[in-house]
Design a protein that fits this description.
The protein is built from 5 helices and 8 strands; from the N terminus they run H-H-H-H-H-E-E-E-E-E-E-E-E. By secondary structure, the protein is an alpha+beta fold. It folds into 2 domains: 2-82; 92-208, Lipocalin. An 8-stranded antiparallel β-barrel has the order 1-2-3-4-5-6-7-8. The longest helix is centred in the N-terminal third of the chain and has 28 residues, at 31-58.
Length: 209
């Protein structure tokens, strides 16, 4: 029974690590405790692996079930160590990035905003937790409108539209900011610094109609 629980725990741990892209943004403030728990599980599995190796040596590698458990643990722990954010980059699978805008605030809080080639957008904020907003967008002249917005845990306000303006910090004509607005009455907006912008690339225009 213990051996079955070990195998099940190892497989579930591996699946959770490799599917974090889909669930981390839904946890909000619970994201960091969840990752802490995964780190504890990783350490626990590493200890179990050392014990398995000890008994394997003692038994002269004669027990097949122990060989299987040690092999499974070795593969899982090595892969997670090599790719702690998962083997598959699901973000790239969801489409190429046309625009990326970021901003780092106080306490190392960081917001990353992306417009995808398939008219999808994502916004991820890491600040005492992980929150995520997803939805669709459409481009009308110089304005980006957000539709079908789904906010994650802890996100009570979402922006309705955004515009691109020359940066107020780098006035060289080469740097731009993405200014997002909650509604038409919002005259201040919230700015993000654009690090990539292929939004108006002629080859991509037909994806934004």
């Amino acid at each position: 029974m213990k051996n079955k629980r070990l195998i099940i725990t190892t497989i579930i741990f591996f699946l959770l690590v490799n599917t974090a892209y889909y669930w981390e943004g839904k946890l909000g403030l619970f994201a960091f405790p969840a990752f802490t728990l995964l780190a504890i599980v990783y350490a626990g599995l590493a200890i179990v692996l050392f014990r398995q190796i000890y008994f394997l040596i003692k038994e002269k590698f004669s027990v097949r079930q122990r060989l299987f458990r040690a092999g499974l643990l070795t593969i899982v722990l090595a892969l997670v160590f090599y790719k702690p954010f998962g083997l598959i980059d699901f973000d790239k699978l969801e489409g190429a990035d046309l625009l990326i805008a970021e901003r780092e605030g106080s306490a190392n809080c960081r917001t990353t905003f992306k417009l995808k080639v398939n008219n999808k957008f994502t916004e991820k904020t890491i600040c005492f937790g992980i929150t995520e907003i997803k939805g669709d967008y459409k481009l009308e002249n110089d304005t980006i409108f957000f539709e079908n917005v789904v906010a994650g845990r802890g996100e009570n306000e979402v922006c309705k539209f955004a515009v691109i303006r020359p940066s107020i910090f780098n006035k060289d004509g080469k740097h731009f900011d993405l200014i997002r607005f909650k509604d038409l009455n919002d005259t201040t907006g919230y700015e993000l610094w654009i690090t990539k912008n292929d939004l108006y690339n002629p080859t991509d225009k037909k994806s934004n109609r």
